[in-house]
Amino acid sequence: MADDYYEMLGVGKDVSDEELKKAYRKQALKFHPDRNPDDKGAEEQFKKVSHAYEVLKDSEKRAAYDRYGPQAFEGGGMGAGGGGGFHDPFDMFREVYEGGGGSGFGGIFDELFGGGGRGSGQGGARAGANLQYDLTVNLEEAASGVEKEISFRRAVSCDHCGGNGAEPGTSKKTCNTCGGAGQVTASRGFFRIKQACPTCHGTGSIIDTPCKQCSGEGRVMKTSQTQVKVPAGVDSGSRLRLSGMGEAGVGGGPTGDLIIVIHVKDHEIFDRDGDDLYCQIPIKFTLAALGGAIDVPTLSGRASLKIPSGTQSGTIFRMRKKGMTSLRGYGAGDQYITVHVDVPKSLTGKQKEMLEAFAKESGDDREPVGKTFFKKAKQFFDEQ
After folding, report:
1. Nearest 5°: CA angle at 32, between 30 and 33?
2. CA–centroid distance for 185 within its chain
3. DSSP letter, residue 236
4. Where are the alpha helices (DSSP H) in 57-115?
5. CATH class of the domain whose range is 271-378
6. Mean pLDDT of the residues in the chain
7. Domains 5-87 and 271-378 are alike in CATH topology
8. What φ, ψ does residue 173 adopt, rounded to 5°?
9. Which CATH superfamily, name and number, covers 5-87?
10. Domain 130-168+213-265 part of CATH 2.60.260.20
11. Is the pLDDT of residue 110 over 80?
């Protein structure tokens, strides 16, 4: 059964030109071979959606398709190539990519995605790349905020040539092929594609005497240092952007940014869930029985926690506003403390004698703990 071009693009027959273009853009990006390396199925689907769009965007071809279906474009009919059937757009995209017509998806479509992408422009100027730096902080630093100095390598403008790329005392010449634009335009069927000029490789100019320091690149690698202010409340995965601290642009293009990715180390005492903190603390069984107060750790220092008499193992206490500072300025989270009753593993003779007296006074010597539970359990099994 032949493919339905409308269904393939996820649109109805009454789709507008703009909606059709958006639908094709979505499908083309989804199945593009660069996103699906070595996936022949995706490559085939990419060809199909490209052909479907080529037909439906043209009013005459669309009318023929609505009337006769896909067979109207088979066997040298109204194919995209003007004869001999469908011209495979993937070959054209491969030519653009291998010819240096862009990085990633920027610049591959002129009609659909706009020519050039970020960083391209008159004279071959390109924006510098963004850099990523992984910064590790501990939980206390994440809670209160901290300032760290970091060191990293990046491409910066060459001091020797001032970023020009030409040896001082010499100059660049405007590329005759592209007229200094750094790009040439090729028309292939229903696509108009801007790609890097093959003569100047997208720079817009020719350098006869390259700079001895940067070899004509206009940039050199150097180690940079900067201070990073980490705000209170960050968590693993939080990102900070330092504008202009990435790699220098090419041909006068803007400098990229430095992206700081935060990683918070695990803590020996506290577990974190959002802005709340959790910890477990053992207490003596005498304290659990009699009640009292103990000092507990918090990120801001020691704090007193009241333990009511008769506290059971596993009881959770909440300490308000003792958690993490909110990154969004909503105050602070809470700290939750789970207490576990610590039963002594060995007793002195006197301690044992005193506990036996306590058990006798409490009636524990006559009715073991859990007797009611065992009665219920026996009844349950007898009923099965």
Report:
1. 135
2. 34
3. T
4. 59-68, 89-98
5. mainly beta
6. 81
7. no
8. -120, 140
9. DnaJ domain (1.10.287.110)
10. yes
11. no
